[in-house]
Structure formats: structure tokens, C-alpha cells
């Protein structure tokens, strides 16, 4: 679930930096297993599933053949995801702290 709301620290954590058309943000995730190149010409259509699953940010699916077998990857629309997050309003900064966020 995508949510800009603060969560407690988890161990281990990683930060993924997303460079969108208008801004860059960092996403805190539990882990990163690797970085892969995806052949977008082989992209599969986005799934059409029930309302219980958030698919509005998924632009399609891709199959990746890794050393340990085949994996299905969800391709995200980063610009659309970032449009839904008011980054400046969500940051918890100590009083007097300056933001390095730029539009």
C-alpha cells in the first residue's frame, strides 16, 4: 500500500530515490533485492482486479528471468504516484529545519 504517512523504523530498511518529471523523492522500503533492466516492448497490460487492490499506479507487468527463475514485476507510474503525495506537507521536520525539497 502506498502511503506517505509516517511508519515506525523497520530493520533492515533501504531508500529508493525516484526521479519524477517534477520532483525527486525517497521511498523507505523494507528491502531491495536487485535492480533489473526491463524490455518495455514486452510489457504486459496492467491487471484489472477488484477494488481491494490498489492498481491505479501500475502501468503494466513485465516478466524477468533471474538466476533463481522467472519473476513477475509490477511497473509503476512514478509521476502519477508522486502527484498523489503532498511531499512538503508530510515531512516531519524539527522547528527551524529547512527543507532541501525543490520543485
From TrEMBL:
GO BP, one annotated term: chemotaxis
Organism in which the protein naturally occurs: marine sediment metagenome
Organism placement in taxonomy: unclassified sequences, metagenomes, ecological metagenomes
Entry protein name: CheW-like domain-containing protein
Gene3D superfamilies noted in UniProt: SH3 Domains
Pfam families xref list: CheW
Domain annotation CheW-like: ranges: 1-87
Amino acid at each position: 500500500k502506498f502511503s506517505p504517512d509516517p511508519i515506525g523504523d523497520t530493520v533492515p530498511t533501504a531508500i529508493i530515490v525516484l526521479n519524477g518529471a517534477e520532483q525527486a523523492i525517497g521511498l523507505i522500503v523494507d528491502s531491495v533485492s536487485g535492480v533489473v533492466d526491463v524490455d518495455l516492448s514486452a510489457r504486459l497490460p496492467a491487471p484489472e482486479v477488484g477494488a481491494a487492490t490498489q492498481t491505479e499506479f501500475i502501468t503494466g507487468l513485465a516478466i524477468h528471468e533471474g538466476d533463481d527463475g522467472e519473476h513477475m514485476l509490477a511497473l509503476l507510474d512514478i509521476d502519477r504516484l508522486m502527484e498523489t503525495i503532498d511531499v512538503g506537507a508530510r515531512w516531519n521536520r524539527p522547528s527551524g529545519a529547512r527543507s532541501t525539497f525543490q520543485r
